[in-house]
Each structure stands twice: as C-alpha cells, then as structure tokens.
Amino acid sequence: MNQTGITVGLQGQQATPAEILSFESHGALVFLVAWSLWVSRKHLKNTLECALMSNRAADDGTPVTYRTAWLGLAASVIFLAGWCLAAGMELWATIVQLILMFIALFGVAKYAAATGFTFLSPGSTGGLGADKGGNVWMQMGGTANMSPGTLTTIWMINRNGFAGMPIRLTATMSVPHYFRMLGNHLKRHPMVWAIIPIAYITGCITTATDSLYRSYMDGGMNGPLYLGDWNHLVRLVPYVEGSTILYFDIEKLGVWLWGFAIAGFLTYIRTRFSWWPFNPVAIAFPTRRYGFSLLVVWATKALIMRFGGVALYRKSLPFWYGLMIGYLLGVGISTGVDAIWFPDAGHIVHGW
Are residues 160 and 295 in the same domain? Predict the structure, then answer.
C-alpha cells in the first residue's frame, strides 16, 4: 500500500496503511470474540444460574465459585466505569470504551489458550500499536462529538498510563489460565490465595518506590525514561483542544466490516472442513515482530502432521521444549557473564 498509494478515508483524514490494517484486524477480533461468546452461551448461562442459586453446594466453580466470579466482574466494571467518569470521560464513551477493553482482553485470553501463543496483541503492532480499541474508535468514529476529557481518558486507558498496553499486558490475560491450572488448590491451601494479593501489592509498592527513588536521586531524564506515551499525548493535543477534528468515516467502517466478514467466512470454512489451514486469528492478531517465526512454526507443524501424524508430533515435542529451555538457559548464562565482566557497561543479551 505504501508503494501503490492506496488510501482509505475522507479528504483530509485518510488512513495510513498501518491504520487500514488495524481497522481490518479489529473487525476480525470483534467477530471472533462475539463468536466465542455465542458458542459458550449455554455454559455462561449455567454459570450465572449457579451464581444465583440459594443452594451454594451446587456452585462447583473452581478455584473460586461462579458467584464470586460474577461478582468480581460486576465490581470490576463498576470500578472501571467510576474511574473513567472521574477522569472526565462521558458516560456513553465510558460504556463504549469498557466494551472495547473487554473485547481486547478477552480476545487475547481466549486465543492465547486456543493457539498456545501468548504474545498476541490486539490492534496490530505496527503504526497505531496494540491498544484496547481506542485508536480504531477515534479514527473510524471521529472525535467531533468527544469532549476533551473523553479524548484524554481514551489516551490514558489505551496506552501504558492505565494498566499497560495489551502488547505488554500478558499477565492480566493469563489470570484465567492460572485459575484453570489451580483447580481446587485455592480451597485446599488458604495460604495460596493469601499470598497472591500480598505478592501483587508488594510488587506495585516496590516498583513505584523504585521509580520515585531513581527519579529523585538520579533525575528521571538521566535514566532510561520511556517517553513514548508522552510523545503520543503531545500528538493528541490538537484533537483534545479541537484544532484538529476527525469525523465519522464510512470508508474506514467499510474496511472494519471487511475484516469482520472475512473472519466470519474463515470461521465458517474451518467448521466445515477440518483440513482448512488458514485461521482467522491471524487477521485479528497481526504481528511483525514474530511473523517469520510463526510462519516457520506453522509450516513445520503442518509438515510433521502431514507426513508423520500425531505419533511423530508427540515424539518431536521434547525437541521443541529443548529449544526453548536451551535459549532461556543461554540468555541466563550470557546475562551472568555480562554482569561479572561488564558490571558498569552491560550489554543487551536479550531483546524483542
């Protein structure tokens, strides 16, 4: 698209190629989340019925009861909505943003389990960067009807200012999987559920204290200060003050609907033909950091399954685990060697 000059959008607010891909991927993500909820609708209904039952023995949710889970969801929504409203966001915008946030985080949690790949980032990792739906919302729906408080809060929620961007927020989406692995251990071992919140609070206090200490002792600008979020906010100032206004764009919506439709088509094909190799997840979670690695893994697994079947796949698992363990061991040894021989001028031994 860069070479051919393809553009989408009204005059004066055309989308960049990265933004176009973000519209498509977000449309696909919305479909996949909606499809996942539809497929699991009976289970969700059963969990809600268990939560509302007066007979608590029938609530067999683990590691916490279904009532606790639903109450936790309700409390989280109320808290987040109150925080957004207190920060200056309008009520209607708060509702939209919470829905978009749910789509982003639920999508990563669901398809990290389905694909086995935990480094999923909604909204693509190029151009706009992974976010919780805010950038697509602003670019596609426009900013003409948004107050300055709403625009500023959208920035805080979708960047690192609010619990981190999804590209760095793998821990939050991993919580459901931790719960699944825990099973009944929370009930069997009270010390486990007592230590978890203590560890979280300790981590928050430690990191905040370290940041404040280093900023006051060394000066924030003298250390490895990350300015990406503030640079993004500076670029957002014209929209906040109203000198630059985006309007609802039907062409961008068309790209979003295309992503929604193509994800639906690929999902339908996969339900009809088990041999179909292309997964709509690739559209919802495009990546350039791990693109080549994913291609190699996909091709290797396809060849193993094609010529050796399940038996060869299971026999090859120790080799793949060995690759990961060997790489991590190499990083650990390199870090130790670097710390010993270069204590004051260390080197980056592991990057993105």
Answer: no
* Residues 166 and 228 placed together within one structural domain of the fold: yes
CA Rg value for the chain: 23
Q: Are residues 275 and 298 in the same domain?
A: no
Distances (CA, A) of 194 to 12, 190, 198, 201, 223: 55, 6, 7, 12, 36
Domain ranges, residue 346? 290-352
pLDDT of residue 223: 66
Q: What's the pTM value of the predicted model, to 2 decimals?
A: 0.82
Average pLDDT in the chain: 85
Domain endpoint, select from 239, 270, 287: 287
Q: What domain count does the chain have?
A: 2
Question: Which of 246, 271, 287 is the endpoint of a domain?
Answer: 287
Residue 128 pLDDT level (bands cut at 50, 70, 90): very low
Backbone angles phi, psi at 233, to 5 degrees: -65, -40
Q: Could you tell me if 129 and 167 lie in one domain?
A: yes
313 is a domain residue: yes
Q: What is the pLDDT of residues 306-339, one digit of tens each?
A: 899 999 999 999 999 999 899 999 999 999 999 9
Alpha-carbon distances of 320 from 8, 148, 301, 325, rounded to whole Å:
43, 51, 11, 9
Find the length of the chain.
352
Long-range contacts of 246-250 (CB under 8 A, 24+ apart): 246/13, 246/138, 246/139, 246/142, 246/143, 246/144, 247/10, 247/13, 247/142, 247/144, 248/140, 248/141, 248/142, 248/144, 249/9, 249/10, 249/13, 249/15, 249/139, 249/140, 249/142
Same domain, 194 and 310: no
Query: Which candidate, 15, 2, 27, places its Cα nearest to that of 246?
Result: 15
pLDDT in tens, 206-230: 988 988 888 888 776 676 666 777 7
